[in-house]
Amino acid sequence: MKLSSPVHQLKRQAKLTARESGMPLHAALDQLAQQEGYSSWSHLSVSGSRSGRAQKCLRQLDGGDLVLIAARPGQGKTLFGLELAIQASRAGGESYFFTLEYTPADVLKRVSQLGYNPAEMRDAFHLDCSDEICASYIINELRDAPHKTLVVIDYLQLLDQKRQNPELSSQLNVLKEFARKTGIIIALISQVQRDFDLASKSLPDLSDIRLPNPVDLTVFTKSCFLHSGEIAFEMAN
What we know:
- By secondary structure, the chain is an alpha/beta fold.
- The protein has a single domain (60-235), classed as P-loop containing nucleotide triphosphate hydrolases (Rossmann fold), CATH 3.40.50.300.
- It is built from seven helices and seven strands; from the N terminus they run H-H-H-E-H-E-H-E-H-E-H-E-E-E.
- The protein has a seven-stranded mixed beta sheet with strand order 3-2-4-5-1-6-7.
- The longest helix has 19 residues, at 41-59.
- Residues 61-111, 145-210 form the SF4 helicase domain.
- This is AAA domain-containing protein.
- Pfam families: DnaB_C.
């Protein structure tokens, strides 16, 4: 949901309200957040930050990109992918969220966590939780999708979980070629190896991606890594 003012300006308004009314600052912040449609200030500030990061990321994506979004569990990669799809649809484009991990109810719950009302989601946001999701299934569903449609796939390591599906590397090459030909943007959410938790670096990179089968990760044109509230957006070499 769109804020009436940037987060820092809203915080300034709350401080002024607290000073003039004598109410505690936390109460003034929560009151203002509720006026903006959020349950609390913490909900507003987190959602506002994530929304801003998603919008910044979207501005760096081009038609035909194959994008990797990677993080350890609990770092918000699914919420970030959802935010990307929602922001793309709110900006007037089409977006799809394909997931082999969650049910429709699970996804809609996360949409609510982002501060959006699932009942008011625009028709331009498409959710697909089919058990048949793989590269060929996705391409078939996108046959009428316009140029620069944003597609988020949750998640990379599940695409070849069924034996009848092609190996992961083959599916990625097919998706990349489809994106190149159509100008559609495809982003895949990915797991990061557990070993990263013991690493000294602050953010994971391509060497930390969990791969049950060999995959040439240079297939991705861009990548986005998240950890502890930090985010790094990288172009392909």
